Amino acid sequence: MISWRKHYKKGLIAIGLLLSTSASIYGQDGDPKNGEKLFKANCTACHALDKQVVGPALKGIVERVKTEAGLDKDWLHKWIRNNKELRASGDKYANEIFEKFNKTEMQVFPNLTDKDIDDILAYTTNPPVAEPAPAATDAASAAATTAAPADKTTTNIVIISLLAIAALLVWILIKLRQLVKLGQSEDLAGLNESRVKSFSEIYAKYHYIGKGLLAILAILATYGIWNWIMWIGVYKGYKPEQPIYFSHKIHAGENKIDCQLCHSSAKYGKVSEIPSMNVCMNCHRAISEYNGKYLETGKDKAFYDGEIKKIYEHTGWDPEKQQYTGKNTSPVEWTRIHNMPDFVYFNHSQHVIAGEKAIINSFNKKNPDNKIDVVCKACHGKIDTMNVVQMANDFTMGWCIECHRTTEVDMNNGYNKEYFKNLHEKLKKQYPQDGGKITVDAIGGIECGKCHY
């Protein structure tokens, strides 16, 4: 009897241990924290934990595969490492999944070790609690803290202004009192006799001063009109609101997306086109919400998610079904910021390809404390720091000419070195103090016909 009870107790302990470790058998024997890093690096382009993106939601995928097909982690290892090979072997469940998700090819991952896959599966089974993103209230409180000294300064200015007005009023009252006393004295009659009583008398007395003032006013008016005319069409600092909010700081700054991924014709074309919505969908087909840490002051995650939804509305994309519905709204009417007049010829490729090194070097020499690493920034400013893009320079003819006069031609370029060989030797003799440096104006960069034809 005692022996039977011993074996019974041992059996219960064994069953308990088996049950307690069964979760580990199905995906929790890896490191969820490391799995999170691997998941974000390899899987987030097509998958999310809690919803379908390009592929299915992966939270609880180990248990789901076991429930649906009676398969274990070994099958998942084969699927993740090389799903094509698994499908080619005739695996029924692998081919069912392939058909279910519109025959979308999944990337193979032969570089992932068994431990890496175990860590990813552990993350999908038991994801660690994510640290909350900085809330909009935090940004607002930070802004309020920053604004507090400014508010205090404003209050001080108002108080000082009121005191100054009060002092001025007291001074006026004192002067009025003095005038009243003066009116009661005999000196007032003599003072009135000596005063000028008409404008003609004033003009006759001070006509030289009057003519001088009129001449000065005429000169100032002429200068003002000339200055106003010269700045017609110059919109430095112009930053209009767009129909869909797009932060270059998030895309080009925080996420390091290359300019030419969206503006593909800027390098090899005459103009840099406005990207179509299909370019946006290359990424936002899989990115339906904003999970970045950066939040612009006054904006929260819900704001950015709402802007992504606008992209879906204009393209007719259904994020739940992961397909186009064919029911899209009207085209997005973007407001153009940089727009050369029709009488000006400007070729992007000429500057971005042929002049890239020369422009960057020239800009960095003139701005040692504000250097650039991409040629685009020389004209458009540091776009990767702008939440709302603005016109960073004047884009006047004088601005272009000044650049052509100070930018050296890249003589290490094989074509330039051979084509301008004789000119280079001539300039060395003509301007020995400059070492014969060739700037863009020396090769016709300020000829009228280069830009106006």
Automatic annotation (TrEMBL):
<feature type="domain" description="Cytochrome c">
    <location>
        <begin position="30"/>
        <end position="128"/>
    </location>
</feature>
<keyword id="KW-0812">Transmembrane</keyword>
<keyword id="KW-0408">Iron</keyword>
<keyword id="KW-0349">Heme</keyword>
<dbReference type="InterPro" id="IPR009056">
    <property type="entry name" value="Cyt_c-like_dom"/>
</dbReference>
<keyword id="KW-0472">Membrane</keyword>
<dbReference type="InterPro" id="IPR036909">
    <property type="entry name" value="Cyt_c-like_dom_sf"/>
</dbReference>
<keyword id="KW-0732">Signal</keyword>
<dbReference type="Pfam" id="PF00034">
    <property type="entry name" value="Cytochrom_C"/>
</dbReference>
<feature type="signal peptide">
    <location>
        <begin position="1"/>
        <end position="27"/>
    </location>
</feature>
<feature type="transmembrane region" description="Helical">
    <location>
        <begin position="157"/>
        <end position="174"/>
    </location>
</feature>
<feature type="transmembrane region" description="Helical">
    <location>
        <begin position="213"/>
        <end position="234"/>
    </location>
</feature>
<keyword id="KW-1133">Transmembrane helix</keyword>
<keyword id="KW-0479">Metal-binding</keyword>
<dbReference type="InterPro" id="IPR036280">
    <property type="entry name" value="Multihaem_cyt_sf"/>
</dbReference>
<protein>
    <submittedName>
        <fullName>C-type cytochrome</fullName>
    </submittedName>
</protein>
